Amino acid sequence: MGAGAGKTRRMPRAVRERQMLDAAVRTFARLGYRAASMDGIAELAGVSKPLVYLYLHSKEDLFTAVIRREARALVDAVRAGVEPSLPADAQLWAGLRAFFTHTAEHPDGWAVLHHQARTHGEPFAAEVAAMREEIVAFVTALIGAAAREAHGTPDLPARDVAGLAQALVGAAESLAGWANETEGVSAKEAAATLMNFAWAGLGNLMRGERWAAGR
Amino acid sequence: MGAGAGKTRRMPRAVRERQMLDAAVRTFARLGYRAASMDGIAELAGVSKPLVYLYLHSKEDLFTAVIRREARALVDAVRAGVEPSLPADAQLWAGLRAFFTHTAEHPDGWAVLHHQARTHGEPFAAEVAAMREEIVAFVTALIGAAAREAHGTPDLPARDVAGLAQALVGAAESLAGWANETEGVSAKEAAATLMNFAWAGLGNLMRGERWAAGR
């Protein structure tokens, strides 16, 4: 310890683990869960394969650890981006920018959460479902608050709010994948597209204006 | 043939195959791909297991056949619901009603497409991705036509239209799962929630009105 140099230098376990998880998220995102190998992940992390097994136990446990870390980072980024004292539309705009900025800066993490974690069955899909429920609850609270904020109209029924939150989260997931796969679409553009789509629509709903069928 | 009765009556291959696929979609949706067995599917279909293998070859081929049939049925239902001579908002409303009616009437088919087919890797995920691209292309054309229809404003840039189509399709996917899992949400309610969300927002965009940041 201390004066050692080069490959034999000892690092704290937390640093080693982070290196392994960084290598794993990149590998799982690009090769997929099945094709990813513990050998390849160890090599990319610059550690020995036995050390990966010692710390993370198995490919399944490593994949679960990656999903948990990336899900937590995404939810934290969205929460940190939102200032609860602002009006609801400003909160939504900040939340969308934080979401699309995070998914653009962590494309491998988003690919693991949105694609890989859902395409390899349980228990991985359940980890992502839990994260999604947390985001839906957050958006539901935001839309509910916006409805209460709006002057002169009754509250939106709870079921409408729940449906709108599901629509908004589904739209954001879909756009994040599209933005990452489409050359030259910035996080801010993706956020602005969804904000225009969502708020101009939500804004009318808040004022009690609905689209009229059969006009 | 003809006068035969009971179990030994011969049926056309197409009828037998439909029975097998009906049993398979139900089994895959409820048990998942891995837990589903060819024995169980044959029993539910009222045919022998060798006949299932003779017609559909393997569990993998059967799953692929189920995905293709359910994807085709969903796309056809949406296309059939839309009358191209109507104004764009009426077309969208008809398309959404057709989509949510079909997913509500075929919850097992939707569960296979949205959940099972994406949670068991390739080649199944690619089948669903192809269906999704067809629906996105359809919605993109619809939004583009609406933008051209709108008077007095320039066309929306193609990239905005593409982003809006991605947002709308993602919102519909998310709401369909929610509607099927939530007691008492009808297809028409789900379609109305999304129509209000989408069109009041899209309608403003068509008139060149955008949500203004920093109000």
From TrEMBL, chains A, B:
Keyword DNA-binding tagged: yes
Alphabetized UniProt keyword annotations: DNA-binding, Transcription, Transcription regulation
Keyword Transcription attributed: yes
Coiled-coil residues: none
DNA-binding region coordinates: 37-56
Record-annotated HTH tetR-type domain positions: 14-74
Pfam family, one: TetR_N
PANTHER family found in the cross-reference section: HTH-TYPE TRANSCRIPTIONAL REGULATOR RUTR (PTHR30055), POSSIBLE TRANSCRIPTIONAL REGULATORY PROTEIN (PROBABLY TETR-FAMILY) (PTHR30055:SF158)
Protein name: TetR/AcrR family transcriptional regulator
Organism: Streptomyces crystallinus
